[in-house]
Write a structure and sequence with these properties.
Blueprint (H helix, E strand, L loop, with lengths): L1 H22 L4 H5 L4 H9 L1 H7 L12 H11 L18 E6 L40 E3 L9 H14 L3 E2 L15 E5 L15 H9 L3 E7 L10 E3 L6 H7 L7 E3 L9 H15 L3 E6 L4 H10 L8 E5 L10 H6 L4 H13 L8 E5 L5 H10 L3 E4 L1 H6 L22 H5 L3 H26 L12 E5 L3 E4 H4 L11 H10 L15
Parallel strand pairs: 2-11, 3-4, 4-5, 5-8, 8-9, 9-10, 10-11
Antiparallel strand pairs: 1-12, 6-7, 12-13
Helix pairs in contact: 5-16, 6-16
Length: 516
């Protein structure tokens, strides 16, 4: 009798937990997998102990280690993101790790009164080329290209709302502007090889459709996608089963039919014709126009720099992606072995333009695991003006690095079109988390700039970072990547302007947050 009562009581309790899980909106896993999802949080709680004796250390997992994910989760939830008892890194013997050099004295430091941690770009996007709608981005941290279809409707909506609250730009990805990108954030429209959203019935580029799309949304710039780090030089196929009426309408493709994305553009065929295409877009829309690419063979970049040197044609910005970048799905050989890692690729491209004195004319945007403060600092030291974040902002809205993006079975509803899984992602709470994460990234960059003794991360130079070779040697960032004197630095006029915009002070005496 007592046993039956106990079983009945347990069943009632589990039923109550299940009902609570289904109606709550804070945790997507619990909404999608009531009751059993609690086991995941329990295992996560004792994860450090399990790994210490059985599995892995806090810095061993990839693509993002436990420490990195923990920092993003805590930062996005406004929890304590500090770490105790010292570093987990083997700092005495770690080869290739970057170390940032603090300064004892400084002249101009960032303001510690800006609680939104505003960090405007040091460069005006489109300014050097005289674009009619040139502007200075309000944030050096922005959201990278992620299409609706790759991510769910709820994920795109949450990220867009979070970007809007943080004053960040949101790149649409090559899948065109969806209704879920229209929730307040200013947009960068990505133009891919299939010209989704701006194609005619034959799949060719249509300027009229591009203009109509631009007029319908707060579009601030255009980005021509040449390739991305995780699958450069590779086309794609959207199978007929996934071409829903909604996807078909957004992308401008026939419903229920296979849709292929070519590996290369048809609107231009070489660097010269690409620059003509860029200038046509700039003249017709008034918007800044840039390109996004991974880095492989250097002849493309050498030709681009040479043809831009007369300054009568040119791209307004270059988004450089690293081979370690993410994607919803890619063949293993492409993800592992095609295109250069970010730091190597960026430094080669930057040096090509620096040799011709063109770097102040271009806004360089870095992409590939740069949503972590240490990686971002190195990117700025090498010459990046802004950074884009993708997987990191996905983590901020609940991604658990399940690595099921290519299966349509993402358990947290981020990278799936499964309606049951998508419903688990509550837009309101996740939008708040995305916005907090983006502001926290700017906060961390402001803090580290103050430690280095400069007013803005764009003023961090290669001299401020060393690359360690265990405990035997340390080389400056400049010597590792072959930088010459002054490379990676902005010109004096840009430097004076950004110092003025930062409302600098003599001291940086930030008061700790309540969560710290």
């Amino acid at each position: 009798m007592k046993l039956s009562h106990a079983v009945s009581g347990a069943a009632v309790a589990l039923g109550a937990v299940a009902v609570r899980d289904l109606v709550q909106k804070k945790h997507a896993l619990q909404r999608n997998f009531p009751v059993v999802a609690h086991a995941r949080y329990w295992l996560e709680t004792i994860g450090p102990e399990l790994r210490q004796y059985i599995v892995t250390g806090n810095d061993e997992e990839r693509p993002f280690s436990r420490d990195q994910r923990t920092w993003i989760y805590a930062s996005s939830k406004e929890q304590n993101s500090y770490f105790g008892f010292g570093t987990d890194l083997d700092v005495e013997h770690t080869q290739g790790h970057a170390y940032i050099k603090q300064r004892t004295f400084a002249d101009k430091l960032p303001s510690d009164q800006d609680h939104n941690w505003t960090l405007p770009s040091a460069k005006v996007l489109g300014g050097p080329r005289g674009r009619a709608k040139a502007f200075r981005p309000e944030s050096v941290v922005n959201v990278s290209a992620m299409s609706f279809g790759s991510l769910s409707s709820n994920a795109i909506t949450a990220i867009n709302k979070g970007a809007a609250s943080a004053g960040c730009l949101h790149n649409t990805g090559e899948g065109s502007i969806s209704p879920y990108h229209r929730n307040g954030a200013d947009l960068i429209v990505q133009i891919g090889t299939a010209y989704f959203g701006c194609r005619d019935d034959a799949g060719n580029f249509s300027l009229d459709k591009l203009k109509a799309m631009i007029d319908s949304a707060p579009v601030k710039a255009l980005e021509i996608k040449l390739s991305q780090g995780a699958k450069p030089g590779l086309g794609g196929l959207l199978p007929a089963a996934k071409v829903t009426p909604e996807i078909a309408a957004i992308r401008g493709i026939p419903e229920g039919k296979d849709c292929s994305s070519p590996s290369r553009h048809t609107a231009f065929h070489d660097v010269d014709s690409m620059l003509d295409f860029v200038e046509m877009l700039g003249a017709e829309t008034g918007l800044p126009v840039g390109i996004k690419s991974a880095v492989g063979a250097m002849d493309f970049w050498e030709d681009l720099a040479r043809l831009m040197s007369p300054r009568d044609r040119g791209v307004d910005f270059i988004t450089l992606d690293g081979g370690e970048g993410g994607t919803g799905a890619a063949p293993l050989i492409f993800a592992d072995s095609v295109s250069l890692p970010y730091r190597m690729g960026f430094s080669r491209v930057y040096g090509t333009f620096a040799e011709l004195g063109l770097t102040d004319d271009i806004t360089f945007i870095g992409s590939a695991k740069l949503g972590l403060p240490d990686n971002a600092v190195v990117a700025f030291a090498l010459g990046a003006d802004m950074i884009n974040v993708a997987r990191e902002v996905m983590l901020s809205i609940g991604c658990i690095q399940a690595q099921k993006c290519h299966t349509d079975h993402c358990p947290t509803g981020v990278a799936t079109q499964n309606p049951w899984l998508v419903r688990g992602l509550d837009v309101t709470s996740k939008a708040d988390r995305a916005g907090v994460y983006l502001r926290t990234m700017r906060k961390e960059l402001t803090r580290i700039s103050a430690a280095v003794g400069v007013a803005h991360p764009a003023l961090i130079t290669c001299a401020d970072v060393d690359i360690f070779n265990g405990d035997y040697d340390a080389r400056s960032l400049a010597s590792v990547y072959g930088y010459k004197e002054g490379w990676g630095e902005i010109g004096p006029d840009l430097r004076d302007e950004i110092v003025r915009l930062m409302h600098t002070s003599d001291h940086f005496d930030e008061q700790p947050d309540a969560a710290d």
